[in-house]
Amino acid sequence: MAAEHPVGDPRAVELALPFTGRWLTRNSPARRVPSHGTDLLGERYAVDFVGVDAQGRTAGMRDWRTLVATEPPERFPGFGRPILAPAGGTVVAVHDGEPDHGARRSQLALVPYALGQAGRLRAGVHAIAGNHVIIALPGAQAYVALVHLRRGSVRVAAGQVVAVGEPVGTCGNSGNSTQPHVHLQVMDSADLSVAQGVPMVFRRFREQLRTGTVLVRELGMPGEGSVVEPLPGEA
User: Fold this and answer.
1) What is the rounded radius of gyration, in angstroms, for the C-alpha atoms of the chain?
2) How many CB atoms lie within 10 A of CB 112?
3) Maximum pairwise Cα distance, the chain
4) Contact, 83 vs 96, CB < 8 A?
5) pLDDT in tens, 67-106
6) Which of 195, 182, 175, 183 is CA-nearest to residue 36?
7) Ramachandran region of residue 140, left (φ > 0), alpha (ψ -120 to 50) or beta?
8) Residue 186, helix vs strand vs coil
9) pTM of the model
10) How far is residue 134's CA from residue 188's CA, in Å, rounded to a whole number?
11) In this structure, is residue 235 part of a structural domain?
């Protein structure tokens, strides 16, 4: 389906980017909706961000493992970076303890991973989301999920009130994830198994397009493959 444009959509929830530094945009709803190819688990408008280094690389090295095997998540610059609350609200769900598995850039390594997708779905929400935090926005009309966090990094508890920009955990590779990244979505329920996705937009960020053009966005959704960083005054 063609992308839906959330700017001006009365349903769209305004958020801050949930990090500092530079991150690559993947599975953007600016490209297509459903962004991840499914409406399951509230993912209709979800977006992924992969941490990059100063050269814009998601990993600073390549070796034989890159071609034929899994790779340690520690070689990816996003792994362990702080993940921040994109909005103020109340934490309503927390899950930690899922392992961070090896990253997979190799097509050979991705094949068995893809074949295991049905099994992960049968295993339930934790096998897909991994370590995660869900925040109820004021009024409890919408909920923000931050997914695939690093094992042992979650810093908040259910019932805790958080402010925008407050650290909630660090970027990991838990759950249904092929390399360290943060998956963010807004939804109408705190229960991922029944949630429906809600559109969102981000405030005040710099966006470097794949063409090299740099834009300053006051409000919007980054495009597929663009590198973003929050502007001063935002998380």
Assistant:
1) 17
2) 9
3) 51
4) no
5) 777 888 999 999 999 999 999 999 999 999 999 998 887 7
6) 183
7) left
8) strand
9) 0.91
10) 12
11) no
Q: Is residue 4 part of a domain?
A: no
Q: Tell me whether the omega of the peptide bond preceding residue 34 falls within 30 degrees of 0, making it cis.
A: yes
Instruction: Evaluate if residue 3 carries a pLDDT over 60.
Output: no
Asked if residue 220 belongs to a domain, the reply is yes
**Out of 66-80, 172-186, 193-207, which region has the weakest mean confidence (pLDDT)?**
66-80
Show the tokens assigned to 46.
Answer: 């979800």
Q: Which residue type sits at 108?
A: L
| The pLDDT of residue 1 | 42
Query: Domain holding 121: CATH number?
Result: 2.70.70.10
In a domain, 159, yes or no: yes
For 117-126, the pLDDT digits (tens) are 666 666 678 8
Contacts of 198 (CB under 8 A, 6+ apart): 11, 12, 13, 45, 142, 186, 187, 188
- Per the structure, how many domains does the chain have? 1
Distance CA 185, CA 162 (A): 17
Give the number of other CB atoms < 10 A from CB of residue 196. Answer: 13
* In contact, 228 and 10? CB cutoff 8 Å: no
Cα 121-126-131 angle, rounded to 5 deg:
140
Alpha helices in the chain (DSSP H): 64-68, 107-115, 117-123, 125-129
Residue 5 pLDDT exceeds 80 = no
CA dist 40 and 98 (Å) reads 21
Q: Which domain holds residue 186?
A: 13-230
